[in-house]
Write a structure and sequence with these properties.
Oligomer: single chain
CATH class of the largest domain: Alpha Beta
CATH topology of the largest domain: TIM Barrel
Helix content: 25-40%
CATH superfamily of the largest domain: Glycoside hydrolase, family 3, N-terminal domain
Number of strands: 32
Largest sheet: 13 strands, mixed
Radius of gyration: 33 Å
Length: 932
């Protein structure tokens, strides 16, 4: 690191070498060009800007960065190049690689998710990915405050219109970037959040706010980022016109750079100018003169994006300025010190010449993919749903048609993949879509086509899709609207593309005037989705259902589909001050959660179970129908239990109950049941119980994973997955609490009835005999050793406890074993029990059969057994024979794989009794959902 008073290495006595460090330049092409090679070798260029036009893939980017650094090294550069890119996420990414580089929400999307911790994680992940490719300088965070949010082109690139919120997220992004080892650049000082545009590109947008106004709002994020250690700052090329401050271009004004930024805000990092090739600046001043003005104003690095002739003009202009004593050498060397200090934080020759590349990106990919999904899922915001249209699965039958109307928009800005994608030509009479799959970051039209396909897959029904343009609502649109049963309209910055606003309002009017065949007026369901700026219809309450995604990448729209169809409970909120006028969710109450006391609460729990059963629809069969308060208490020394209640301390009534178990043998913490009095739902009782349960499980020593659903006690094997609206709400409810229901495992309980008249299917016994397994039935502890060793081949929770209970009750339980004849090695086992056993107390579905019944539980087949299905069928067939021989007329299978073996078991006479989705996750990565 080089301080202000530190003596510089004699190498910097060469003025040309020094001047080269004060420029950042770009070039055209995806490989090293003769021009950029000349700039590095002959002009000692110290900083490179890479944009989407340079970057094809992560692998090619790594190669390009290495080649650039190698040229600099071989040319005798004293320090490596600073290589920078814009990688803001959302729609503004310079580097894209659908395999190795993840897509994350825009700054405003992250702010909508409501977590600065998430902002830090996403920023760190973003910086890790670009750093792996050899990039060491990120052009972020974006610190602009949208003080005139509805008319600014920045849109979702910044966190919003609240200075403190923009500041909090900006600092979180900055810290995340720095934690991954890249240096940061705040932009666009002194704020692009309230520019006035005069029209032509030769006119300069103007900031008219006074210094006092700027200080109270726009400058707050910049001031706080500086205090927290921002490495560099980009000063914009806009004009400023207010009392006491007039500048044609901010980056060329000593009032702005030396005065406002350096003196008033005490910034001593690297200052980077806006690109001096911008039309208004080069036309008004010229690049040579502009370079001298930028350095004299206090800029340390002058940015020139791509024109080689202009770049040479800038180099010549700066050298002339020094020769003519227009620029002091003291200023030049102060800038050099700042640049060298910044480079020392992010690079050295060993690092520059050995980028980690693809190998490191491969290790990051799984966790970064999960982070991307979590971030997008958390950002989707349902601003309004007045008529409760969501989820659409409650509205539409499979045979009904859904219409998707999307605008023709440009490809996503700065998307590498978009270079190769031609825009679909606009049409005055658009035709319904023909689906066409392309890359993961696509042109607007193509990503919308992929959205149509996703909607069709999700609802298992027809989706009509067509586009709209500035030509407005055409007859083809009206015909499709009349034909469809529900309509989704997408807008992208309708506040600036006014044709989209007009089109959407026209469609809304048509939907409000729909009539049934009987002449009765019925409003047709309309969902409006803003896929960029959330301000399109944020305050227009005539749009009854309004959703914001904050960008239209494919990843964002995948999360949108989950929200539309109830797979995901939306948790995003509008960022900034606008959210203060929009109450999106009921505020959660925080209930007192107490430990379950068996003596005090047992009767009240029985009453609560009864209330839950009575609250179930007649067509639904409650999993609790034969459960009692005793069903949840294991009293097992190997299982740590903790159960919780929300209760009325005056009446002793229970409003909610949650059971948890920690199985030491597998390190699994289980939520075995969670239910609330139907008369008191939607009051946050379930949230309060769930949070207490998770906090308790997190404290268990040796906790490895969490699971929803328990084998023992076998009441709820997971999230109930039956029919009806209540069941459809449970999955997104748990997803909203942090469980990834998309990775669930289907499990079920099954029953075979009329067992006394049952006979095995023809030929099954013969095929089983030909398979060559030996079976026997054993009872008691003397057989425990090999059996308990065998079941260790499965890490499913509760197995050891079920087998231990069975081994301890030889009079009512047995274990069927399957062995290999050659060496007697155990290949499979299954537990048998009857309704007199202690084990049956934890199997309420057995009691629910209302007849003499026995159970088969916990089959374990050794890994690698080639005839898995045959062996499983054999174990269960023999178990059914034993249960029938005991005089039982029904047999329960209590915990079966809901995917793989149902058909094979159906041939034995079994039918599904209850369906569940077992969900598990790594305890080390669990994130507590903060209270609202």
């Amino acid at each position: 690191m080089v301080g202000k008073s530190d003596k510089l290495d004699p190498v910097w006595d060469d003025l040309d070498r020094t001047l080269g460090q004060l420029f950042m330049m770009g070039f055209d092409g995806t490989s090293v060009t003769p021009q950029i090679k000349t700039l590095i070798e002959k002009h000692h260029l110290g900083c490179i800007l890479l944009t989407a036009k340079n970057l094809k893939s992560a692998e090619e980017t790594t190669k390009l960065c290495y080649e650039l650094q190698k040229i600099a090294h071989d040319a005798g550069h004293a320090v490596p190049l600073a290589i920078g890119i814009d990688q803001e996420n959302g729609g503004v990414n310079s580097l894209f690689d659908e395999i190795y580089v993840r897509q994350y929400p825009s700054s405003m999307g992250i702010a909508a998710a409501g977590s600065t911790d998430l902002a830090f994680e996403v920023a760190k992940a973003t910086a890790q990915e670009i750093s792996a490719c050899g990039i060491n300088w990120i052009f972020g965070p974006c610190l602009d405050v949208l003080t005139n949010a509805r008319n600014q082109p920045l849109g979702v690139r910044t966190a919003g219109d609240d200075p403190q919120e923009v500041s909090a997220y900006g600092v979180a992004f900055m810290k995340g970037y720095q934690d991954a080892g890249v240096v940061t650049l705040g932009k666009h000082f002194p704020s692009y959040g309230n520019l006035e545009f005069l029209g032509s590109t030769l006119d300069v947008p103007i900031i008219t706010e006074s210094l006092e106004q700027l200080s109270l709002s726009a400058l707050v994020p910049f001031r706080n980022a500086i205090r927290q250690g921002l490495d560099s700052m980009m000063v914009g090329g806009c004009a400023m016109s207010s009392a006491g401050l007039n500048a044609m271009h901010a980056c060329l004004s000593d009032q702005v750079v030396d005065g406002l930024l350096r003196s008033d805000l005490n910034f001593d990092g690297v200052v980077v100018s806006e690109c001096l090739e911008m039309d208004a600046l080069s036309h008004n001043i010229g690049v040579g003169g502009g370079t001298v003005m930028a350095v004299n104003a206090g800029c340390d690095v002058v940015l020139l994006c791509r024109s080689f002739s202009v770049q040479q003009e800038a180099l010549k202009g700066l050298k002339t300025g020094i020769e003519n004593a227009m620029i002091s050498k003291e200023r030049i060397y102060n800038s050099l010190r700042r640049v060298l200090t910044m480079k020392s934080k992010c690079t050295n020759w060993d690092k520059a010449l050995n980028p980690p590349g693809i190998n490191f990106l491969e290790t990051l990919q799984p966790s970064h993919t999960a982070l991307s999904t979590r971030a997008y899922n958390g950002s989707i915001t349902v601003v309004r749903d007045k008529n409760r249209l969501l989820p659409l699965s409650n509205l539409l039958e499979n045979e009904e048609e859904l219409l998707l109307l999307t605008p023709l928009v440009k490809p996503l800005a700065a998307s590498a993949a978009s270079r190769a994608l031609s825009e679909t030509a606009s049409s005055a009479t658009p035709e319904p879509a023909v689906w066409e799959r392309t890359a993961s970051v696509m042109s607007g039209e193509r990503v919308f086509r992929e959205l149509g396909r996703s909607l069709a897959r999700q609802r298992n029904g027809r989706v009509l899709h067509t586009s709209y343009t500035a030509n407005g609502v055409r007859p083809v649109h009206e015909n499709l609207i009349n034909r469809a049963s529900a309509i989704i309209v997408l807008t992208a910055d309708a506040n600036r593309n006014l044709y989209q606003h007009g089109f959407t309002k026209h469609v809304s009017m048509i939907c409000n005037m729909q009539y049934t065949t009987g002449g009765e007026k019925r409003e047709k369901p309309l969902v409006v989705v803003a896929v960029s700026s959330p301000y399109d219809f944020a305050m227009d309450t005539s749009i009854g259902t309004y959703i914001c995604t904050y960008d239209f990448t494919e990843t964002a729209l995948n999360s949108l589909v989950k929200v539309l169809f109830g797979e995901l409970a939306p948790s995003g909120t509008l960022p900034g001050t606008i959210s203060k006028s929009q109450k999106l969710h009921h505020s959660r109450q925080h209930w007192l959660v107490e430990n379950y006391n068996e003596e005090r609460d047992a009767i009240a729990l029985d009453n609560l179970i009864k209330a839950v059963m009575e609250g179930s629809q007649p067509s639904q069969h409650s999993e609790l129908s034969s459960a009692t308060s005793n069903s949840f208490i294991l009293h097992n020394a190997e299982v740590e239990e903790a159960h919780f209640v929300v209760r009325n301390s005056s009446t002793q009534a229970l409003y909610g109950f949650c059971s948890t178990y920690f199985f030491r043998t597998t390190g699994t913490g289980v939520i075995g049941a969670l239910f609330v009095d139907p008369a008191r739902r939607k009051l946050s009782i379930g949230h309060s119980l769930h949070n207490r349960a998770i906090r308790t499980l997190l404290q268990r020593e040796g906790i490895k994973r969490f699971q929803l659903g328990s084998r023992l006690p076998s009441i709820f094997l997971g999230i109930p997955n039956g029919h009806g609206a209540e069941r459809r709400r449970l999955r997104p409810w748990f997803a909203n609490l942090g469980w990834n229901a998309a990775l669930s495992r289907p499990v079920c309980s099954m029953v075979a009835r009329n067992l006394l008249n049952w006979t095995p299917p023809d030929g099954m016994a013969k095929s089983l005999a030909s398979a060559g397994f030996q079976f026997d039935l054993v009872y008691g502890w003397e057989y425990a050793g090999p059996i308990l060793d065998h079941i260790k081949t499965s890490n499913r929770q509760g197995l050891a406890e079920v087998y231990n209970l069975a081994l301890a009750e030889p009079s009512t339980c047995g274990i069927i074993r399957a062995k290999r004849p050659e060496d007697g090695a155990l290949l499979g086992t299954v537990v048998l029990y009857n309704h007199h056993s202690h084990l049956s107390e934890y199997m309420p579905p057995l009691k629910d059969l209302n007849e003499s019944a026995g159970g088969i539980s916990s089959p374990v087949i050794s890994p690698g057994v080639g005839e898995y299905s045959t062996l499983l069928q054999g174990l269960i067939l023999l178990g059914m024979r034993q249960i029938k021989a005991q005089g039982c007329n029904a047999c329960l299978l209590d915990y079966m794989d809901g995917d793989g073996n149902i058909d094979g078991l159906s041939t034995l006479g079994f039918k599904v009794l209850h369906n569940f989705e077992e969900v598990s996750c790594d305890a080390a990565t669990w994130t507590m959902i903060p209270p609202a």
